[in-house]
Amino acid sequence: MHRYHRPIYAYLYRLTGRREAAEDLAQECFIRLMTRIREYNPAQPFRPWFYTIAHNLYKDHCRAAEQRAHPAAEPLSPEVPAPIDLTERIAEQAEVAVAVGALAEGEREVLVLRYWGDLKVDQIAAATGLPAGTVKSRLFHAVQKLKRALLDPAPARRNQA
Amino acid sequence: MSSQRTRIAHEMATEIDEEMTEESLDLLLTKLDLWQTPAPSIESTAAVIERLRPLVPAPKPERFRVTGLSREPLFTFLTSLLLQARLLGRVWWIGTALALPVGYLLALSLEGTGISPAIIAPPVVILGLLWALVPMRGAALQVELTSPVNPAQVLLGRLLVSTGTHLVLGGLLWLLLGAPGALLLPWTAALFLFSGLTLLLTLYAGTLTALAVAAGIWGTQFVGVGREFSLFAAPWADRPAVQLIALGVGLGLIAWSIGRAPLHRLLGREG
Q1: How many C-beta atoms surround the C-beta of residue B130 within 10 A?
Q2: Contact B25 A13 (CB under 8 A)
Q3: How many other β-carbons are positioned within 10 Å of the β-carbon of residue B128?
Q4: How far apart are CA B215 and CA B211, in angstroms?
Q5: Residue B64 confidence (pLDDT) above 50
Q6: Cross-chain Cβ contact B40/A23 below 8 Å
Q7: Would residue B178 be called left, alpha or beta, if left means φ above 0 and alpha means ψ between -120 and 50 degrees?
Q8: Contact: A139, B12; criterion CB under 8 Å
Q9: SS in 3 state form for A114-150?
Q10: DSSP letters spanning A23-52
């Protein structure tokens, strides 16, 4: 359990931007894993299957939040420390969190699965139920946006201005 | 992390088919690494474990008793065999594959010397069992605890994998290199006799003691070859009837061991 708890929690944290939500969802994820373990095909790699469960739970979470008219599915605004406490590193971290949070939800999820989850495109496609082409396209757009926001922020700010 | 990042940057550069170079992707991913997530709280981890506990099937007490060989389905038993095969590890397989041809050549060299070629088989058996029974205690215990096999099946699984490999490789050598037929029976008899003896001693005296005693018996006989008190050099040692008796005794010892196998001895844990 310890092997997967942190990665799954991190995945859900990066999507929800909320500690409590990520902890609750990670917990549900393990419960669902145990109750559906018979559906797992040992011939397939385990990690993508586990991320599929996490993905579905996250989607359920978003739908429930929408029904409650809570803005959980809106663009992410991660927990960022108060400006007065920001060191340079924390500021950089917050910059990345905000940039990732500003991605469209689908792009964010694909990016998180690809980079931090280290899943291949076909595995992401299987986990999210998207065509591989869509996964690639979302990854492309996510990278483009992050590049503008993080590597070349000046023009982006000029555009915003 | 950096090597993983470089690898992912390389893969992503291909996947997204963009003009962006691998280096700039790597730079972007370096930036992303700055976003560290907090670790889940201890309370959260404890809560997950607490909720999972009732869902994990509790091992049945029957599994920890010696329940004989007939209560588990054949499939489960075959699965346990595969598990044992995986537990032995690459070194064991390579070592066995190398040891048998060397033993074969040594046994051939004994032809006409009056010494039974069976003298070569015991060290191969002892070394094979030493590797199979001693260094994988933790892994073997995990297998026992997570699979519905009983202790006797664990023992039989290891025995079949170890002895079966020796037999198959020996048979291959016999077929491919045309070893004299006279070599096959003494070798097989010694193989089973020492396997049975070591396994029986393992149950009553512990794994290391059993292997030491088996090695001692063999060593005494080996040293005794030149001094005319070794069974391997006895004039009747090459008689097929004697070898068949040795083979039968070996098989009998193995059957006896399997029937009387307590868990803690089978797993090589001597209290």
Answers
A1: 18
A2: no
A3: 25
A4: 6
A5: no
A6: yes
A7: left
A8: yes
A9: HHHCCCCHHHHHHHHCCCHHHHHHHHHHHHHHHHHHH
A10: HHHHHHHHHHHHHTGGG--TTS-HHHHHHH
| pTM confidence score | 0.46
B22 touches chain A (CB under 8 A): no
Is 0.90 exceeded by the ipTM?
no
Nearest-Cα distance to chain B for A131, in Å, is: 14
Long-range contacts of A126-132 (CB under 8 A, 24+ apart): A126/A48, A126/A52, A127/A48, A127/A49, A127/A51, A127/A52, A127/A55, A128/A52, A128/A55, A130/A106
In tens, the pLDDT along A31-89 reads 888 888 778 877 778 888 889 999 999 988 888 877 765 545 455 555 555 454 556 66
